[in-house]
Design a protein that fits this description.
- The chain is of the alpha+beta class.
- Helix content is about 35%, strand content about 20%.
- The chain contains 25 helices and 24 strands.
- Strands 14, 15, 16, 17, 18, 19 and 20 form a 7-stranded antiparallel sheet that branches.
- α1 (about 5-25) packs antiparallel against α2, α12 packs antiparallel against α13 (about 465-470) and α17 crosses α18 (about 530-540).
- The structure holds 2-(butylsulfanyl)adenosine.
- The site of 2-(butylsulfanyl)adenosine (IVH) has 14 residues, from β3 and β8.
Amino acid sequence: MSTTDPAAQAQALREQLHYHAHRYYVLDDPQIPDAEYDRLFRELQAIEEAHPELLTPDSPTQRVLGRVLEGLTPVRHAVPMLSIRTETDTEATGAIAFDVRVRKELGLTEADPPVEYAAELKFDGLAMNLRYEDGKLKHAATRGDGEVGEDVTHSIYTIRQIPLELHGKGSHPPVLEVRGEVYMRRDDFERMNEAQREKGEKTFVNPRNAAAGAVRQLDSAITARRPLSFYAYGLGEVQGWDQPATHSAVLDALERLGQPVSKERVVVQGAQGLVDFHARIAQVRDELPFDIDGIVYKVNSLELQKRLGFVSREPRWAVAHKYPAQEQVTLLRDIEIQVGRTGKLTPVAKLQPVFVGGTTVSNATLHNVFEMRRKRVRKGDQVIVRRAGDVIPEVVGVVPTPRAHYVPNFKMPAQCPVCGSTVVREKGEVAYRCTGGLFCAAQRTEAILHFAQRRAMDIEGLGDKLVRQLVDGGIVRTLPELYKLGVAKLAELDRMGGKSAQNLVDALDKSRGTTLPRFLYGLGIRHVGETTAKDLAKHFGKLDALMDATLEQLLEVPDVGPIVAQSVRTFFEQPHNREVVEQLRAAGIHWPEHEPAERAAPLPFAGKTFVLTGTLPTLKREEAKERIEAVGGKVSGSVSKKTDYVVAGEEAGGKLDKARELGVAILDEAGLLSLLAS
Ligand code: IVH
């Protein structure tokens, strides 16, 4: 930036940030990477911190800063915020009845041409009035009772889609009120609820409630953490604006002024176009990223709207045509447990079948027992079921009704309903899990994929699709059965020729010779990652010693705490898991074992540091590392005075030079192998 005047700098940055925020949040078409946006943002923040007098309320930096209010201030709407008449017919009659009424009111006969209508989505959020004066957002208010709403400007500042200043060159009208809907996207809602659930905290019933709660927060720092969105759909008070002649042109104009306007809208002639739009959106309703509860039909000409006027508090020129509700009440007949791919147990509601969000639902998730307790859900209750989009149907609440007799709280089973293994819940977690990872039918696919991965048994060619085929086809039920697969059987599978079948059998065969850490990691014991597997293998030396280790013995392993120790213990306590391990050994899987670390003489290379550089003739980098670590050595990434050996292969570069400079011992692969053998 050429200018050094901080006021000019701040102004320029604000304009840039407004521009890029609009590209990102409204147009979904960012021009600069997020990091660049953040950099500009921080630059502006720094100037404002150094010169607080330059801070303006509409600065982009003010959108996330918290401001706590005592209470919300009432605002009288210049033009009342009305509601619209609702048609609940799911048939075409909703649109046709509306058209008949409009034509009658306008005194049209069959000889007259069709009326032009605008149709758009009915967003399921909360209505908002945004008042812009001379192009600047002056305040934002909820609908309230239609006459008086609440000032929620502080919350609206956190919605990045809403421009704080209207776009467009030249002067702006003295007053322009934009009306629209604040809503929460379904994915944002799910993410937020999932985070609440993990913390064991209260979840929100639906995106609309979550959005309404967020907007009415007194502390805008809390609102800023609740991801809200906005769509404009109309006008309030307008002064000094050359208003277009139709509603659709008003929306186009609002879009040019920087307001988010949904693309899903049409202008049609007569009722049939409305019927078609209603039917088309019904087809894609589930795929929309947000909830809608219907379609709004509006007479497009503003002149005709004026002529039609209002009845009581509803305009005659608009109507809402609803879709089937996304929440319904039904009987909770029973509660069952579902075991997920990773062993997580989820309580599932068996419901009296009910039509929700366009389909019949008879199962819905209850998420976890803690949530069930909070919501006071018990068998026999009338529950509220929500099904929206492709999200799994869920029980979001209970209709409080007296119970005829005492019903105990639901309890998680102590044994996995699929495989009978022990069920555990770790401290601080809400999830209950099955510990029969190697044996449990629900967890087969995941167990095999984990076992086969490169960093575990490294079975080349055994990927996601193939494992699914093997498991779903009942060809492989447990890990050891992998090693019984023959070329002929494999070659029968989809997309599998004789050559790839042979390759897989070879890869399986090759994986038989492994290391104890890889094997341990491959078992998929909860909390046993690669590093812990190495620590355990090093400490116990032999698998049997580890399998029989007590909790106290496990706790002696460096870096192993109570959670890991308990997890290892529980895993090997399951007879089925032990059986699978035995079968794997019987299938020929082997690894070098050594004496346990405590009793063995200290490993010969304990405390020695190696650096690997360049390409070795036969050993892969990972193999060389494993061999060095097996004798107690450590592999480091950079050469220093503390380095004991540099192992150099072909095309070794700077590290080799550095080793020479510091006088560190240099080995080639042969040198390394004979050193380790000594
Ligand atoms: S027009 C005078 N258009 O539905 C007519 N309303 O009762 C003003 N809504 O809570 C409303 N999407 O917030 C209109 N595309 C849309 C809408 C919409 C949702 C809400 C509105 C109000 C209710 C109408």
